[in-house]
Amino acid sequence: MTSPARGAVRKRLRRATAPDEALIAPNDSDPREAGTEAVANACSDPEVHANQVWKLKFVLNEEDNAVNGAFYQPSFTHQIFPNERIRGYLEPNLYQVYDAVTLHCYLNFKYTAVVNPSKEVTPVMSTLQSLLDECGGYTTDYEAFRQCSRNANEPLETALKTISTYDLHNETFIISEGVLCSENKSPAQAALRALHRRLQFLTLLYIEAASFIDDEDPRWMIYLCRSRRDQRLVGFATVYRFPAIEKLQEFDPHREKWRLAQLLILPPYQRAGHGTRFLHALYERARCVSEQTGRCVLEISIEDPAPALCCVRDLVDLEKLLTSDDASRQWAQSINASSPVPSRSELKTLAQRLRITAAQVRRLYEILRLHAMVSASAASGDVDPELEREYRLVVKRRLFRENEECFGLKNDDERKQMLAEMYTSLMQESYHPVIAAAMRRGLIAPTRLERRTGSESELHVLVSGSKELLLRNSAQVSESGST
């Protein structure tokens, strides 16, 4: 089965290229007429990073406005502006304000002047217009935006089913499930699809390789996380359901797999714990579906997860492994610094029990073995170089198999260098932050070093090219939750 984010999705990006197509707020003049000669001659071809001049805000009521309060910057703009650059403007500022409940959008592009208008000028507004029109539209009139937000009473609830609630920071949040494409043509269903389309634009700004999904496919599910108090949107996820076909002669229409294609926690709520709770809710939902409907959800996988989401998933899956049942917990606790790689049948059995992939169980084994090595080195005060070498080779062999197409015709030295970089990145960006977070939550035992110092930010880690490296402040597991 091909991945929905590679086959069924559509990257529907249209860019305007002619400089004179730029529609500039606050006026509608042609950019070649906007600047003064003095400015045009004083500065030659100015260029700014789009991420730095783009400011987003999420407002809830009329007291909020477009210029005061907390703004957020996008993480990625390369799918909108080439090289994430805006050219040709003096002191440009791009403001985008969203209603925190409905995600209706206000847009305003301000600048002092166009510099050297005879040269290439980035058509900022026309480029955004082509995308935002496809994502539910926008307005450049702030009063109209406020009026729209004030009057918006989209009847979402009848198209959604609450699947989970949780309390965080003295507030209650609700996670609801809906179907993007349904035979039901009710106003609530139409409102849900419209909200999803408005969300799609934000994925371009916060998910590096984001694609728009085909919302006319009935196999797409959408999950919304909102505040119970005021319905403010916290985040969303889209999940693709497809038949679990391992052997054609054993096909069972009631057996299915889920693939998480998009998971985005909105900027005001990132790094607060919502991502882990979202994943826990999806796993629990898969279990309930199997028990309540007769459908059997065999596994939940994630489509091309970003490093931050890998950390969140590893932490959630590690918690499931250590708390779900006695057999899983005993297997996890049996892993030591020299434990061999589990057999395929062993990985498959654990994967079926946890509803994750065998490849993900393999990652959990590597994390637990690394933790055992860290604990052993902290206890003895030194690193066993043979254990370190053996572990490094085990991980690198797996990385090579999973990324073999990346190596192509490279020679041995180039392959070794790439593998060393992959290994170091995996250790520093994924495994060590997960271990630190798991120790902080009491899922795994702290090392003797931490018992002595009482600091979870000081963690001995093993990386290629050095016997031992002390990473500080590695306990931060990002909750941006993007794929």
From TrEMBL:
Q: Per the record, a Pfam family?
A: Hat1_N
- Ranges for domain N-acetyltransferase: 214-289
Q: Which InterPro entries match?
A: Acyl_CoA_acyltransferase (IPR016181), GNAT_dom (IPR000182), Hat1_N (IPR019467), Hat1_N_sf (IPR037113), Hist_AcTrfase_B-typ_cat-su (IPR017380)
> In what residue span(s) does the Histone acetyl transferase HAT1 N-terminal domain sit?
48-208
Which cellular component terms (GO) are annotated to the entry?
chromosome, telomeric region; nucleus
Leader sequence residues: none
Q: Its Gene Ontology biological processes?
A: subtelomeric heterochromatin formation
Which superkingdom, per the lineage?
Eukaryota
Protein family:
Belongs to the HAT1 family.
* Descriptive protein name: histone acetyltransferase
Q: Which organism is it from?
A: Cyanidioschyzon merolae (strain NIES-3377 / 10D) (Unicellular red alga)
